[in-house]
Amino acid sequence: xxxxxxxxxxxxxxxxxxxGSVTIFVNPDPEERKYLITGLGVDEHTLASSLDPDELSRLxxxxxHVALIFKMPKSYSGEDQLxxxxxxTGAFLFKDRLVLVMSEEVPLFEGKQFLKVxxxxxxxxxxxxRSAHHFMEHLRVINLLTEELEDRINTSMENTYLIxxxxxxxxxxxxxxxxxxNAIVIAKLKNNVQKIGLNTEEAEFLDxxxxxxxxxxxxxxxxxxxxSNLMDARVSIVNNNLxxxxxxxxxxxxxxxxxxxxVSAFSMNVAMxxxxxxxxxxxxxxxxxxxxLVVVVFWKYKKL
Length: 304
Description:
seven-stranded mixed sheet, 58% helix
């Protein structure tokens, strides 16, 4: 799928196909890939890397454009079952054109920073910065989900919530790797400001991007460490809840079995004391009730 945009009055507006200076390809079909490779001169391997979620971020300088592969979080849906994933995005900066290639639809031109875009270089940097902010948004969601799961685990004896925590922990590991990979290419961009053609204002904005990405990495690292350190405690809580339940069930079974033993003893087909007494039934019921009370009193006295 192809979408074209144009910069008008420092704003990004949609336009007809082939007329804009900004083009987005989402999971390009064979014809669109052919256009990118033969028409724009994009390297075939670099193009494939833009659609590979396992590809590391990198920066390459071609004769007529700059090729950047960076990581972004995938849009989350309920079908992912708390699994947050990352995807690769390719940004190809020409002198008069910016081409973005991604494997699936990801919100790019959202936020206040896209209300004022002065040039293609500025838009190129803002798209990179959008990645860091997108990661931060997902990290806040992960933190909220973690707190909710912790509350449920405290009273649960099932493994479902614990497995969900493991899934979130796995997602944070992928996020840390992706954010760190972005940090490497941002540093490389900083070292090649003149080669890319960034002005002083854009170079300063690149410093801000580096700071935002580092803060995002630290935040993800904090969440990951907290989740890892609390995982063993959560496992212990689940086991403790199960032990409490088993202890309670054992007491209940004991309270039932003692009266059953008394009644069974007086139900044997042999001569029993008081078997002809008119109050024998109530005597047996009294012993059964007394045995239950003894177990309950003993349970409370020992604080089991």
